[in-house]
Amino acid sequence: MEVSALGFGCMGLNHHRGVAPERSAMIALIRQAVERGVTLFDTAEVYGPFINEELAGEALAPYRGRVWVTTKFGHRIVDGKHLEGQMNSRPDGIRKAAEASLKRLRVEAIDLYYQHRVDPEVPIEDVAGVVKDLIQEGKVKRFGLCEVGAQTIRRAHAVQPVTAVQSEYSLMWREPENGVLPVLEELGIGFVPYSPLNRGFLGGALNEYTRFDSGNDNRNTLPRFTPEAMRANTAIVETLSRFGRSRGATPAQVALAWLLARKPWIVPIPGTTKLARLEENLRAAEMKLTPDELRDLEAAVSKVEIVGARYPVEQQRQVGQ
Questions:
Q1: Closest to 251 in 3D by CA, of 132, 170, 140
Q2: Is the full-model pTM beyond 0.85?
Q3: Domain limits of the chain?
Q4: What is the tens place of the pLDDT at every residue in 175-196?
Q5: Exposure winner among 59, 61, 79, 138, fewest CB in 10 A?
Q6: What CATH topology corresponds to 8-316?
């Protein structure tokens, strides 16, 4: 699956990132991304629920054959409402979710279908088996996993080859290096970092006075986004800014360039609602860091102690399984 160096995460166009902009403006933004060379677009049934898939489906309908659209299943959704913390990867649940996603995305087959979170009630082998059947039926093209541990990847891959694993990964969260990335390299699986800018923080526009109180922004529940944590973590943004200043790069571009320099099979999916930010992010692909520059950057960042967990305890239990 060959895609652009950077993909586009669609979630924030309507979900968990504050007041949603006009739908028509977000459709236009997605199409601007296509025109600028982006070929990988990421959504999920739970973003809304359903609204994000519908938005991406409408926006990308004119570009079929030019782009890849990925989506996810696995959360329990009843009467259009996401039941927080409840999973559903039962075989019938996966099948129903796939049929509905196909309609919302306006496609005949889902390019890459991720399990969004592990369902502790359903063996991963069973999940992989259902997706394998969907692939054989022509409804899905590829299988992916999100926020999983190394052993889960191996078990799933033995049933149905995994094309990509998606997980949070950035200069503020490097846990995938401890076990997951080596397994992906061994098995030939791609890696898709979400929140590569730590939910916008590494872009430099957020600080301790920023408030996430729209009712549609999950950052107000995350320990890393308390005023105290953001005040302390501003040090990493300042570090990236100093590094980028002599290279004509913004903190966001440095953070993305670092990811792109890690491995050729790592494809970050930053999201935004603004054209200027989209263009800023895409220019990161032009920034080539030398091995010496990578060492200097990592040495500088290592001096900053990151404050605050990335998820509350209950949400943290759902990841890395």
A1: 170
A2: yes
A3: 8-316
A4: 999 999 999 999 999 999 999 9
A5: 79
A6: TIM Barrel (3.20.20)
